[in-house]
Design a protein that fits this description.
- The chain is α/β, with parallel strands linked by helices.
- It has eight helices and 14 strands.
- The strands form three sheets. Strands 5, 6, 7, 8, 9, 10, 11 and 12 form an eight-stranded mixed sheet that branches.
- The protein is globular, with a radius of gyration of 21 Å.
């Protein structure tokens, strides 16, 4: 990526001849230097997807002016489109319960600069990680979830996310089910991670259930959250092989390792605008 950053343009629209040519002509007319381009056509839905990165310093205008000048093309092709500036860090709000492996991993990647983001706050329904989060200089908010007052708790979460100007909410092993209202308010903005035993081993102690059944693969799924529990569009998945010599403790350790890596990759794809929703699926330009 050029030192001065890139604009990232993502497009989803009905498929037809001339989409790439029209966009490329617009960029070329203004001196735009395309440094990365990806395209995909879905023949079943007759829909076209595109991601292009354009060097910021090759264009004579900022991202707001880009939006204004590109609007006519977007209207002509009935585009759902989005453009971001890589120089502006995205704001990631993290939610966690009482399992910290994904939280530790994300904060480590943030401190090392691997994830070039701002973390305005961490929200939890337990106190256990307050000192760890605050040691990093990040505000920590405790919001207990009373089953009788769940709507109030998640309204408080919503208020915090909006006040933080959050771009994405990451459920880093947050173990409460969000309300349908909250899921519908932020489509494509809430990311979850869970083990890939679902729907086979539901409920408590899934790794022990898996051990009792002699599983040979342990995996994880990173997906967007919808009002249908654990059924949102999938961003990233992975598995690792285990064998008969691995007891429940080894399965848990292996599972947590893959959960961390899958969540980090899925979040990075989202942050880099590599993910475009396609109904119940996603297009991911790696």
């Amino acid at each position: 990526m050029p030192d001065n950053g890139c604009f990232t343009l993502t497009v989803s629209c009905p498929d037809r001849v001339g989409i790439v040519a029209r966009v490329s002509e617009f960029l070329a007319r203004h001196g735009g230097w395309i440094v990365e381009a990806s395209h995909h056509a879905d023949p079943d839905l007759a829909r076209f997807f595109m991601r292009q990165q354009i060097a910021v310093d090759s264009l004579p205008f900022d991202v707001q002016t880009f939006r204004a000048r590109f609007a006519n093309i977007a209207s002509e092709f009935h585009m759902d489109w989005h453009i971001t500036d890589s120089r502006i860090k995205k704001r990631v709000v993290i939610m966690v319960s009482n399992l910290g492996h994904c939280l530790y991993d994300l904060l480590g990647r943030w401190r090392s600069g691997e994830l070039n983001i701002d973390i305005p706050c961490v929200i939890s329904n337990h106190e256990i990680f307050r000192s760890f989060v605050e040691w990093h200089g990040i505000p920590f908010h405790l919001i207990p979830v009373d089953p009788e007052r769940k709507d109030m708790a998640f309204q408080e979460v919503t208020d915090l996310f909006d006040e933080a100007h959050g771009d994405v909410l990451v459920l880093a092993r947050y173990m409460q089910v969000l309300t349908p209202e909250m899921c519908d308010r932020y489509p494509g903005q809430i990311i979850n991670i869970h083990h890939s035993f679902l729907p086979g081993f539901i409920g408590a102690r899934p790794y022990h259930q898996a051990y009792d059944r002699g599983v040979k693969l342990v995996g994880a799924t990173c997906h967007y959250v919808t009002s249908e529990l654990d059924q949102g569009p999938i961003i990233e998945q992975d598995v690792i092989r285990v064998d008969h010599s691995d007891g429940p403790t080894e399965l848990v350790r292996s599972g947590r390792d893959v959960e961390k890596s899958v969540l980090a990759r899925g979040l990075r794809y989202h942050l880099e605008d590599r993910v475009i929703l396609n109904g119940s699926k996603t297009v991911v330009f790696r």
